[in-house]
Design brief:
There is one protein chain. The chain has a domain of about 60 residues. It has four helices and no strands. Helix 1 packs antiparallel against helix 3. It is elongated. About 5% of the residues have low confidence.
């Protein structure tokens, strides 16, 4: 396999970095939208129904995926805080 060095490799790495930063906010937005728009009236009327809690199904999955994809944001924040203190 050919290594990616040079301008093409730098562009690919830059694009991958931006794509990694896009994952967490995208999943968080999808989770919030799912919470807002998929809470049906039967779930409100009967809290004993399975899946009647506010965090169920796809909303919980999206918010967990958002949490799992926070690493690039944490690395970015750590880099900025160490650069600011230097």
């Amino acid at each position: 396999m050919e290594s990616r060095s040079g301008p093409v490799g730098a562009v690919a790495l830059g694009a991958a970095g931006w794509l990694a930063l896009a994952a967490a906010p995208t999943f968080a937005t999808m989770g919030v939208l799912t919470l807002v728009f998929e809470s049906g009236a039967p779930a409100v009327l009967c809290p004993a129904m399975p899946g009647a809690g506010p965090m169920h199904g796809m909303a919980a999955m999206y918010l967990l995926m958002s949490a799992f994809h926070l690493a690039p944001w944490l690395r970015l924040a750590a880099g900025r805080s160490s650069a600011a203190s230097a």
